[in-house]
Design goal:
This protein has 72 residues and is an alpha+beta fold. The chain has a single domain, classed as 2-Layer Sandwich (Alpha-Beta Plaits). It is built from 2 helices and 3 strands.
Length: 72
Amino acid sequence: LRQLTTQRKTPLTEYTLQCEYHQLTGIEALLGQCDGKIINSDYQAFVLLRLALPAAKVAEFSAKLADFSRGS
């Protein structure tokens, strides 16, 4: 057991986000900046994403997403 490495787990908060196809690349970039990831995606007339973000980064992601969506 002493030789095993320890990995720290970060609690993640899950969200559902709906966006247009042309916004997807920007949202993926924002997720990367905030250590988030896409858990699931559903492509229909719009894109429905299930996201997971570290709880400590939710406010930062929300602010960046608000700024991003103003330009769309």
